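Session log. Operator J.P. requested a structure for one protein chain; no other inputs attached. Running the standard single-chain path with token output.
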Amino acid sequence: MSPLPDSAALSAFLPDNRCMRAGGRRSRGWFWASAVAVVALAGGTAPASAAKAPRVGGCPVFPAFKGPAQARSAANLAAWNQDVSKAPLDPNSSNYVDRISGLGGNQVVHADFGGNGRYGIPYTTVERDQRRVRVKVTAYPGESDFGLAPIPRDAPIENGSDRHVLVLQRGRCDLFEMYAARYVGGTGHRWQAGSTARWDLRSTKLRHDGWTSADAAGLPILPGLVRYGEVKRGHVSHAIRVTFEETRRAYIHPATHYASDQCDADLPPMGLRLRLSSHYFHANVGRFPADSQSRVVFKALYHYGIVNADNGGSGANWFITGASSKRWKDHDLDRLKTVPGTAFVVVDSRAPITTPC
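Structure written below.
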């Protein structure tokens, strides 16, 4: 099935999600011929994009995306750094968004970070010669990458049940992430974790199909965190991690793992990428003050979008994740709660859906 184009030139054809439906499912017909004609008149394929990758601790957070502006979402880890504001839409976009709406619970963008540092996922950086210590993997040893890792004894642990630990090793540019982590101590300053994952931040290589990571989708966590420093500089140039209450027994690369037994084709698979619709973004960006944290995040929701990475708790739909910091302004980030989930569209992906259903 051909993907749906989405740009200002096509606004007459795609005023909202519901204009993408015909009998509740995908369709071809006159729309495709008209859409192709409009794209051709608009100048065809955009030139290649070569935006620099985000950096943390002197390391790139995965390579920059180098494809054309109108490319589908990439199937490797460069997808995190791909501007998808001009990418075509998934033909099932409206059905996905309607199904998420039908889950109930939270149905607006919720910044799951702030609270004077209580909320969000912390991370730390260490030197290249940081001592490696033993990590005992308790839940998913067959899908974990390390038993030795440069995890300091005082590495910050996420509040809540997931207890993520994220450590970036400067110089080597390796990222070590743990789920359900606990510091055990004793000889060797040992840790224990439910699962672990190591990422070479200079590579786009994926995990093995079927493997989890420190996140349910088999994705890295750090690249999807909204970080205070980048917001202060005025630009978030990567996709943002998001959770939904229910997901499908399926994944789309760069995700490599599902965490559901449900085969409903309209539930979001792991790795599903969404962004704000062009119409909604341009009509509403002016509501966010120019110097606000919320405006920077709002712009990222359009240009880079969100990636489904984990199952949220009850009602936890449209929860976007940031790094913990005492410098977040809760009253400012609360402006994002005015953005409904129905303002999003689903970006078409280069990778097919992988599912046993």
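Operator note: The CA atoms of residues 244 and 311 lie 5 Å apart.
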